[in-house]
Every structure is written in structure tokens, then in C-alpha cells.
Amino acid sequence: MKASKMLAPTLREVPADAEISSHKLMLRAGMMRKVASGVYTYLPLAWRSIKKIENIIREEMDNKGGQELLMPAVQPAEIWQESGRWGVYGAELWRVKDRNGRDFCLGPTHEELISVTFRNDVRSYKQLPQMLYQIQTKYRDERRPRFGLMRSREFIMKDLYSFDADEAGLSVSYDMMYDAYSRVFSRCGLDFRPVEADSGAIGGKGSHEFMALAEAGESAILYCDTCDYAATDEIAGRDPLPVAAEEMLAIEKVDTPNCASVEEVAAFLNVPTNRIVKTMYYKADEELVVVLIRGDRTINEIKLQGLLGCNELMLADNADIEQGGSKVGYLGPIGIEGVKIYADAEVPLMYNVIVGANDGERHLLNVNYQRGDFKIDQVADLRYLEEGEQCPHCHGHLKMARGIEVGQIFKLHTKYSESLHVYYTGEDGVERPVVMGCYGIGVGRTLAAVIEQSHDDDGIIWPMAVAPYQVVVIPVNDREEELVQAAGKVYDELTAAGIEVVLDDRGERAGVKFKDADLIGYPVRVTVGAKSLARGNVEVKIRKTGEMLEVPVAEIAGWISDYVKAEMAAK
Ligand SMILES: [Zn+2]
Fold this sequence. Notes:
571 residues, alpha+beta, BirA Bifunctional Protein, domain 2, YbaK protein, Rossmann fold, nine-stranded mixed β-sheet, binds zinc ion
């Protein structure tokens, strides 16, 4: 490829609306352009990298027996109504009508369509198991698209669906995909972790997210410093640690003026915040509920919502709570009537705790659940684990990191096969629902995650396997015929050797070409300059290390072929 004819419009300025490195760099390196909010054109450089990621995915899916197909982005409403998701998916489902007023959506996912496809043509246990996948454009009408390809409204995904006769078969398919995903992300050069995850709106029990570790990540993960435990902060949990017994003291009511927060109460009474129990009122759909939690802990509303099984969960309005002498900031569990009380698992184990008195600006000391001072309707794990806590599986301690979710695998069990009637006939002649799994990889997100993990102040540092091109050849001066000819010869030789190479023939100053080479992030730069050429050499710069060396012109094609091969083999 000749740079003079390549559509790779680099920018010197950082675009104003780009917040994270991958978004900034993809715009600056001339890889993509915004068309509308959350909708992008992938310019040739990005598209080359995307195709490489797609091919890695294809190879790994095919290796596990996956069959590629392609379903439409446009899906009729009827199949979503049949699964029950048309009504519950919300505003993110991009709904459209055709000229006859018939409802469709632009698919955010394809469980419905693949189920319908499968049920019409597969009948017998003899046809199972199967794995079907596609790499396709998906739509999600995000309220706030941002971070470039991280949270866009139109995006490319690989989605695979497994169909098995029973749970044991599903476990085999799931484990195969776990392995395939690990291979895909390793080959893309990502530093990632598979973590236990919430299965969210897709449903079903059993899920892992594959997290690329990066500061810009939207997800928080907790992982053990000793064993391989890792989970998203949404689901990470552990049994409460045992508490040393204390003598239960008599309850005492004390004035705590202007102490509406846990920190203020703790400072005023000169106690640590973990001696306090917070009393929080929530509105779960229309029902008022109370949640009790240790003062230094944070309520995990995802766990709470899961426990309550409600559609909507929010903190209650002050007007709903402040009745009688109760005042927000001074609420407690004693004397609550007609409202269900849920407590995090640590609360019933605590001795001599401090709670609000429900009586003006006062608190109660030495309250003990174990003595029957207050009641709890249900105890559950309702909090976030925190960095430094003991691991749920071993004696190690938890560390926290941020991650970009690049893939997720789910066991769907029979959720969709039952609602959409995907049944097969067993060897015994009995009809049973097919047991399904679904497995997604965000292709654009993977690309963005690679850039988040691998860049510096000058630009992108591509891992060889997903670099748009492997090498750039730069003649230092386009007016010196000898250099131009030598560079052209190196370019021809590399091309003939099967290397993906760009010849920067743009007639720009060398400095501009070097800057663009670093920004675009070619793994190898070959510079053809008068001084080294006089010695029969060209200069090679390795982007990821900054290392510079001279290689004889006669050996350059062989040298680069070897380097590219070694880099492709490296993890
Ligand atoms: Zn551990």
C-alpha cells in the first residue's frame, strides 16, 4: 500500500469529544470517523484490524466445531413477543416499523432468531449437539453513547449459540467456549481475566465475563492475590467472617445533634464506623422496604433487586420515611411496623451496635439483634465486597481492578427453548427442550481494549497479530532519487515476502512521517536514509520497545519475515 493513496487522515489535535485513549487515538490515527452519536465509519486501517480480530475469532470458533451463519439485523417483533422480551427490553431495543406499520427491531442480540431458526429444522437427539455463530452488526439505542467503540449504538459482535440435549452437554459446550475465548483474547495480545458474572437481562444461571484490564474500563472486578478467584463487583460476595462474642450491654439513648451521616455519628461518639448499622428505606416497585447494613459497607442494589425480584428499585423519598419522630439520618430498626426488614448477612452477627433512634436527632447504643432488640425478615448477602477483604475461596486478599468487558458467556439452560418451543425428540421418544448457551464477543470493543492497553504518548502500539499493517517503509527524503528507489525496492521485496507493508511516499518531511508512523503504530518502521544506505544498511525501529538497529539492505526481507513470525507466535 502506498501512503499517498491511503485513506488514513491523521490528526495532530486531540478531538474535543473523545474522553478515553482508544477513542482519541482511533480518531487521531485516521481509523474511524463519527457519523452520528454512537455510530461510526471504520476507515481502512480500523477495518483491517477488525478483520484480523474476526479471523482469529473464526479460527477459534471453527476449532471447537462452530458453524458460521449470518442472520439479519432486522428482526420481526413477533419473535420477541413470543419470548416475552418485546415488552421488557426497554428503550435500548431499537424499534422500527416498515411501510405497512409492522413492528421490527434492529437486533441487539439473536437468542430469539437463532431459536426460531433451530426449532424449525432440528428435531432429533441425533442432530445434537450443535454450535452456530455469526459475526454481525448489532444495535443498542444507548441513552448516552460514549467512549467511541466502547459504548456505541451500532457495533460488531460475534455471537455463538450452543444447543445440547442436556445439562451435561451444556457444560461441555460452555467449557469449550471458555477455552476458545481465552485463546482469542490471548492471540489478540490482551491482558485479560475471566470473571464470574451476573447473567443480567439475558437470563439463566452461570456466566463469565472476559475482562481486559484497563483503567478506562467501565466495570470493576475483584480478584484474589493468592488463588484464581475473580468476579465482577456486582456479584462478588462472601459469607460473613465470625465475630468475637461480647457482653450485651443495656440500650442507651444519646443525643447526636447534626450527625446525619455514619461518619459524623462515628466521629461524634468516637467509635469506628463498623460499630454502626445503617437503616435504609427503598421503594421496590411500589413496596417500601428497609435494608440494614454495617456502617462502613455499601449496599449492592443489584443483589438487593435480585433478592426482591422487583422491576424497579430506588431509595425511598424522605416523605415516605419521615413519620412520627423519624428523621432521615437518624433511622433505626427498632419499632418498625408493617415494612419488611432485610439485613445484610453481617448485621445479625454484630454486638452492641449503634442505630438511629427514630426519635429526633438521637441514636441508640448497645442494640443487639441476638437479644431480640429488633426483628429481621430476611438475611442475605446484600453488600459490595471491598479491596483488601479476605477472598471467599482462600486466605488470600482481594484486589480491585477496572476492566473492559470484551466477551461474555452464559448458560441459558432452557429459558429460550421453553418460551420459544425449541424441542427435540430423545432416543426414548420423549420430547424435551434443547439446553442452550450463548457466547458473545464485542469485536470493536476488543479492538478498543487492545489500544487502551497498548499505547503511549505518541500513539498506538499494535500487537503484531492485529496491527492494520506490519511494517512502514519511509524514505527520509522524497527528492533524493537514490533513497526513493531503495525504499521502493525494500517495499517490493517485503510485499513479495508476504509482509503487510505501507510505503510512505507522501512527499512530507521525514518528521511528519515518523510522527504518523508512531501514531498509527506500525510494529516495525524501516527508514531508508543516505547515511545508513551508504553503509549498505537500512534503519529498523521496533515500535513497542523503541529499539533502533541497522540491517543490511540485502537481508531486510528475511530479517522482517523472521521478526513478524516470532511476534505472531508470541503471546
Ligand atoms: Zn483466593
